[in-house]
Amino acid sequence: MRPFGLRARLVLAFLLVAAVGCGTTAALTYRAARNAVLEQTQDTAVTAFRQQVETLTVRLPVEPERLRGELLRIAKHGKPHPWRVYAEYGTLRVSSTDRPDSTVLTSELRTRAHALGATHSSFQRVVKGGEPYLTVAVPALFPEGGGYPAARPTGLVLYAVMDLGTEEANIEAMVLAARDGAVPALAVALIPALLAARGVLRPVRELRLAARSMGRGRLDTRIHAKGSDELADLARTFNASAAQLERSVAELRRAETRARRFASDVSHELRTPLAGMLAVTELLDEDAAALDPDTGRAVRLISAETVKLAALVEDLMEISRFDARAAELHTDEVDVAEAVRKTLQNRRWTEPETDVEASGSADVVTELPDGLRARLDPRRFDVVVANLVGNALRHGGAPVTVRVYEDRGRLVTEVADRGPGIPEDVLPHVFDRFYKGDPARTRSSGSGLGLAITQENVRLHGGEVVAANRPGGGAVFTVRIPL
User: Fold this and answer.
1) How far is residue 401's CA from residue 168's CA, in Å, rounded to a whole number?
2) Low-confidence ranges of the chain (pLDDT < 70)
3) Rounded CA gap, 432 and 455, in Å?
4) d(CA 453, CA 243)
5) Which pLDDT does position 367 carry in this prediction?
6) Residues with Cβ < 8 Å from 267, sequence gap 6 or more?
7) pLDDT at 352
8) Structural contact between residues 100 and 93, judged by C-beta atoms closer than 8 angstroms
9) For residue 86, what pLDDT is reported?
């Protein structure tokens, strides 16, 4: 489970809902139970105290000792818990305890009890020193009769003070029980949370695996869609998109196959007539000097264009073999310096007797260490070097430097020129087929496939070729092939 993944967020959301539900239920239950407990205790105490006060016979003037005896009697009948009973009559203070007055009784309760014409009991819950108490005030009344239509207060007020510690302890026990019950409830809620998250994430996981499978080329991948919810709709949409993509890719592949076959077939069919044309143009070239100037120029133009066409056909056939995966590598252990010299000499870019130190003014300068051997396909390595040097001579500036060395188990071949370099927007496309850095240049001496063929040959060796600009000016192509 990822810390911030969808599964974790779903489980946390589920547990949060469960926690809020447990907390809300516990709070409402606690409130209702607390009110019920306190109200029951309060009603019992107030009713019982009022009944005891009603049995009191008041005789005026009040006799303190007799009143104390009555208070002790009332205190014995306290329920649901023992009472401490106090009486006030004017300045007289009497109680069932050893102290005539109580600090628990508030002035607010006394004011209500001594209010003019007060005949009803009053009560108040008080917290004193961290302890909860119930205080009840009941005025003593003269009985009905004697010419008065209703009972009237005598001026004597009795107070009962009852400790509510037991009720608070019970309430605390309920809170602890609710808290202790919430933890197992959340633990139990984790199980349906995981099951719900699993049910939600299963289609997402299948979609991820299907997308990964399609990314690897398996376009026939589909998701089993069931149900009618949003995730099922997403799966059906994915399947429909995958089917459409499979059809489109299949059509593109068929079109690409037809195009490659067409290029290969056309190139193959052109080789035979081109061979005859080349033979004829060679003969015409020999006699071009004897012809009139206009005809001679036309003959030489036809000869040059025929040679270009032959080179283009050969490059097309070569690139077609790469596209068809038919290109093969025939490696042999070769002397790299000797192979590079032979390539340059065959193209007449250097003379056989040219010395490295004496070639500073030549079009091609070489830095070839002796004794460096590598396992290469000689023909394909020849094509790589020839294409890079030819490209540097056509589009760069002389002198072109060919440097070969070993670096960390790889053969490195660098071809650098002194030209203007390659524009930054052209660098990413230099190995693309038929790409021209200058759109205005519609014709060139090359086929437009040389660098693409170079890249394919290097890849066939398990290496890489990159193009860059030198800090001092000019372009440099670097080929790295495992030794």
Assistant:
1) 97
2) 1-7, 9-10, 58, 116-117, 143-151, 182, 186, 263-264, 267, 351-362, 436-447
3) 10
4) 35
5) 93
6) 313, 314, 316, 317, 320
7) 47
8) yes
9) 94
Domain 6-172 - what CATH class?
alpha beta
| Residue 248 near residue 262, CB atoms below 8 Å | no
Determine the CATH number of domain 332-482: 3.30.565.10
- H or E, element range at 149: none
Q: What is the pLDDT of residue 446?
A: 60
What are the domain boundaries of the chain?
6-172, 230-323, 332-482
Residue 129 in tokens:
């020193």
Q: What is the C-alpha to C-alpha distance for residues 182 and 336, in angstroms, rounded to an integer?
A: 79
> Angle 433-437-441 (CA atoms, 0-180°, nearest 5)?
100
Give the tokens for residue 16.
């949060």
Tens digit of pLDDT for each residue in 76-98? 888 888 999 999 988 889 999 98
User: What pLDDT is attached to residue 32?
Assistant: 80
The CATH label, of 1.20.1250.20, 3.30.420.310, 1.10.287.130, 3.40.50.1820, for the domain at 230-323 is 1.10.287.130
Where b means 16+ CB within 10 Å and e means fewer, 205-224 reads ebeeebeeebeeeeeebbbe
Secondary structure class of 12 (helix, strand, coil): helix
* Helix/strand/coil for 327: coil
